[in-house]
Write a structure and sequence with these properties.
The chain is of the alpha/beta class and about 350 residues long. The chain has 15 helices and ten strands. The chain has two domains: about 220 residues, Rossmann fold; about 100 residues, 3-Layer(aba) Sandwich (Rossmann fold), CATH 3.40.50. Helix content is about 45%, strand content about 15%. A six-stranded mixed sheet has the order 1-2-10-7-8-9, with helices on both faces. It has a four-stranded parallel sheet with strand order 5-4-3-6, sandwiched between helices. It starts with a helix and ends with a helix.
Length: about 350
């Protein structure tokens, strides 16, 4: 395997001084979702970004952001995060030997993600505030201490994340009709659209897929068209009320002929359960917002039967096991005897 900086170096802003950092990110599976697609009346694939080194799509952009930060002589990295960015930043910082500081909204980060940032050796600071405030402070810390901000305000982060679009086209042999993504800070849908546009400009594809962005109802400023000062949702990765890439994302969606929509937490958790039980794919709640959005559209006759859709599943389900197991019955405990097992099964 080869990481993003090697495989797509001709499409990335690399120089002779850019270190070719790699954790072998990318090359994630494109999984046919036959059962779900049949249920919805479409051809459906899942781009499972949970197979990246730290378990989320963030690695695609982080590898380039960190490489360019080192090239520029940054003294360290800093990021605000709802979890996945911190895990990715901390991992690539550890890989390259550069310090990393993480600012988290207190009590709003899944433990699986927090554990990653800590075990990779980042300096983790929990704030009494939401993500939007954490990002403001990360930018202030960056200016004061000479640290590179590796959130999606970093243009290299977004450029690296274009690679998911390139892989989708390479794996299918053509662009799909529609790409569905969860939307939090809105960088990923912006980057994915830019990736398709870049492939179009070099003649790799002839058309751009429609980009569908799905938000949780409690954190849906783009879908609802109004501010969300106190975002709240079980899908912690998209619990963001003021997406810094909102303007770019609106442009990407409009130019591609797509749309934004929102779904409830109940719909998100139902989609997560259905995806795991019927397809054998375990993705974190935020990832499943896209699948929930497809079911919402199907109920409104908003899907084009026979079209080809790709849902980008942004993070691994192991990132947030509390959400997945909430409300579930614990394992049945019995004596270690065949008779006891038979009684449970029959």
């Amino acid at each position: 395997m080869r990481g993003i900086l090697i495989r797509y170096r001709h499409l990335l802003p690399l120089t002779s001084k850019t270190p070719l950092v790699s954790l072998e990110e990318g090359s994630t599976p494109l999984i046919p979702l036959d059962s779900t697609g049949k249920d919805l009346g479409i051809r459906l694939f899942a781009k499972f970004e949970g197979a990246n080194p730290t378990g989320s799509f963030k690695d695609r952009g982080m590898v380039l952001a960190v490489a360019k930060a080192i090239e520029a002589g940054a003294r360290g990295l800093v990021c605000a995060s709802t979890g996945n960015t911190s895990a990715s930043a901390a991992a690539y910082a550890a890989r390259t030997g550069i310090p990393c500081t993480v600012l988290l909204p207190g009590g709003k980060v899944a433990m699986g993600k927090l554990a990653q940032a800590m075990v990779y050796g980042a300096r983790v600071i929990s704030l009494k505030g939401n993500f939007d405030r954490a990002l403001e402070l990360a930018l202030e810390v960056s200016r004061e201490l000479g640290l590179a901000v590796v959130n999606s305000v970093n243009r290299y982060r977004l450029w690296g994340q274009r690679s998911v679009a390139w892989e989708i086209c390479d794996e299918l042999g053509h662009p799909p009709d529609v790409v569905v993504l969860p939307v939090g800070n809105a960088g990923n849908i912006t980057a994915s659209w830019a990736g398709f546009v870049q492939y179009s400009r070099i003649g790799k594809i002839g058309r751009i897929p429609a980009m569908f962005g799905v938000q949780a109802e409690g954190a849906a400023p783009l879908a609802l068209g109004k501010p969300c000062p106190e975002p709240e949702t079980v899908a912690t990765a998209i619990r963001i009320g003021r997406p810094v890439n909102g303007k770019k994302a609106r442009w990407a969606v409009r130019m591609s002929g797509g749309r934004f929509l929102s779904v409830s937490d109940g719909e998100i958790l139902d989609a997560q359960k259905r995806l795991a039980a019927c397809e054998g794919v375990f993705a974190e709640p935020a990832s499943c917002a896209g699948i929930a959005g497809l079911y919402r559209l199907a109920s409104q006759n908003g899907l084009s039967t026979g079209k080809e859709y790709v849902a980008v599943l942004t993070g691994n389900g192991l990132k947030d096991t509390d959400a997945a197991t909430s409300g579930k019955r614990p394992p049945v405990e019995v004596d270690a005897e065949l008779k006891a097992i038979r009684e449970v099964l029959l």
